[in-house]
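Chain A, query sequence.
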Amino acid sequence: MDIAKELDKLSAKLDDVDEMISSAIASDPQVQTLLSGTADVWMPVITAGAEERLNFTASLADDDDLSNKETTTNNTSSS
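Chain A, predicted structure.
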């Protein structure tokens, strides 16, 4: 839980991210395209609280487990 609290503190320090992103978007159209196209990936991570981060971590672990099972299954079936 201490890690979650520290991550919450870090999130609080990142409150100015919106301003930085806005200025980058205004100054470079390529940045706008890149950030707009990938916002669904990075925005939830930046704005997540401690509980949400735990859910992300659990989801990633589940995805890794699934990928490993598929790789093992594919390797086994191709032998």
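The chain has four helices and no strands. The two ends are 45 Å apart (CA to CA).
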